Amino acid sequence: MAEIKAEPFAFPVRHDQLALIVIDMQRDFAEPGGFGASLGNDVSRITRIVPDVRRLIQAFRDAGLPVIHTMECHQPDLSDLPPAKRDRGNPVLRIGDEGPMGRILISGEKGTAILPELAPIEGEVVIEKPGKGAFYATRLGEILQQKGVKQLVFAGVTTEVCVQTTMREANDRGYECLLAEEATESYFPQFKAATIAMIRAQGAIVGWTAHVDDILESIADA
What we know:
34% helix
């Protein structure tokens, strides 16, 4: 069986069962004036991973492997937004409010869209998720089953929230999960470091982590 150099030990990869999940690379989280910036975050930390995320996406496309994109967003009538979620964060600008790029984290709004550099192409799955985890209230599990996917490579933001939550959900569902270290980021470097340590602790209790170059080398041989 092929392997990808990883921590805490090599990831046993089966390319015919592998997919890439790109978590929430949205304008609201990565661009000035978006929701992330409104919370006082340095969004340049997010945009700096774009080249590595793009490299991963292109490698999976070139190999004919599935690429799945997620977007955290809600219905315009806010029917899928629990008050407990809306009431947290910036008390001045909340989910559903009008922001510089349209209503914040609302389906179809400019700010909710995936960054143009990473935009999905025809045929790629896009999951709109109302929660932090991509399996909650979505068809992701069904889609992965239909595609025969059993192993997942993760990229996107933020490492400690939506990425980690989805990895934990996937782990509980029996998927083998690999986090691409340079293709994920947090507004807080210490949170990213802690999440990587937690994921691969105790013999890959949640999953593995690997460098993008090592993942790309393996995909090139798929």
